[in-house]
Sequence to fold (81 residues):
Amino acid sequence: MRPAFLVLAVLLSGAAGGALAGSCPMQMKAIDDKLAARPALSAADTAKVKKLRADGEALHKAGKHADSEKALGEARKILGI
Fold:
């Protein structure tokens, strides 16, 4: 029973990492779409969103999906999405 539990735990943790990796591109697209609609943001907020979005993409490509999610989440929060 115990080995089966360990195998299941390993499989589930791998699936969670894959789920995070898959949501990064969706979040980047949502940010891009909102920016394309020219939201009413200050120049400073727009620059911050663009930086966070670029950082999120770079982190995603580096395999640091949790950090990517954090940066993209901050950008989404500023954009109100």
About this structure: The first helix runs from residue 2 to 36. The two ends are 44 Å apart (CA to CA). The chain has one domain: 2-79.
